[in-house]
Fold Ezrin.
Amino acid sequence: MFSHRRLTPKIGFPWSEIRNISFSDKKFVIKPIDKKAPDFVFYAPRLRINKRILQLCMGNHDLYMRRRKPDTIEVQQMKAQAREEKHQKQLERQQLETEKKRREIVEKEKEQMLREKEELMLRLQDYEQKTKKAEKELSDQIQRALQLEEERKRAQEEAERLEADRMAALRAKEELEQQAVDQMKSQEQLVGRDLGLSYRAGSSGTA
């Protein structure tokens, strides 16, 4: 009942160690179960204070006895029902917590899927842009190759035409040269014949 501290002793009264509580006028006495232990005595300034203390002690004793007394069937049923309700509420809280965590996981997975989808769409758009760019470059290269082939054909045709013109000019030149040679031969023959005729005529007159 008494603390071992000698300078500031603290006095406590476990209810199970108290044997009797009483007062006489302003004197209040608490008797412990241990008969060797001294009674705890104090004096109140007024009688009504001791009455109130005794009433509090009696009420506390009733509560103490109720706690020690076995519960009735109704109380046991009520406590069992309360425990069941408490257990049910705990299960509901656990279910709610589990459902909450599951929803959070689903939301995180959904957000992750959306991010991956957006990244995939961006990569796809980039791939499409690069593909279109490559296709355009290839189309430009093909168009350029066709233009170069067309220019090559035109150049070849022009070269063939120029070669044909050159050959035709050469043939025309050869023909003109041949005509000139033939004409000179013809003139020489005519001159020779005229000279022969003149010579024969002169010879006849002389005779």
Notes: Strands lie at 18-24, 27-32, 40-43. The two ends are 204 Å apart (CA to CA).
